[in-house]
Design goal:
mainly beta
Length: 122
Amino acid sequence: QVRLVESGGGLVQAGGSLRLSCAASGRTFSSYATGWFRQAPGKEREFVATINWSGGYTYYADSVKGRFIISRDNAKNTVYLQMSSLKPEDTAVYYCAAGQLAGNSPSTYGSWGQGTQVTVSS
């Protein structure tokens, strides 16, 4: 397993941008797929985006496609989520997770961060 720490959340107006970072510890992080999920109050955790170990494969939820970009820098043990054209419905706690496969189910991932709050005001 790896230890994950998210950062970069905050308060932003609708239409604005934020970049989330997920920093990992462990020399084997570059062999893991990494996903971003989010959870709004009273709602289930939902898939946002995922990237495979090399960065050559990415997949997005329909709700963020065209607005969010997931990327990784294995030399820095970090995965990013660039979020643009933010909407109030993007408000949630955002979590990164690491696992063997780049899937869209939380059960795919064995290691999770503590989350970072993103709030989009209208």
